[in-house]
Amino acid sequence: GVVETTLELGVWDDGPGFSLDAIPAGHGLDTLRQRLEAVFGATAGLTVDRREEGTMVTIRLPLSILGEGRP
């Protein structure tokens, strides 16, 4: 059968940091977030986690993996 899972890709920035709220609508990461949700649905997304040491940006994508015995 098909196994549903999620792939997460993270990028760490050790600079002064930023938040998703500070990004203008329709630009950069906001556009990427909208496209991910439009193409992959609610299980996809983009998060920005600001910490004292920097910022982690994570992209989440749904994956479907065919189980053994399937073409």
Keyphrases for this structure?
71 residues; 3-stranded antiparallel beta sheet; 18% helix
Structural commentary:
This protein is of the alpha+beta class and 71 residues long. 18% of the residues lie in helices and 45% in strands. It is built from one helix and three strands; from the N terminus they run βαββ. The protein has a three-stranded antiparallel sheet. It is flat, with a radius of gyration of 15 Å. The model has no long low-confidence stretch (mean pLDDT 81).
Short note summarizing the structure:
Helices cover 18% and strands 45% of the residues. The chain is of the alpha+beta class. A three-stranded antiparallel beta sheet has the order 1-3-2.
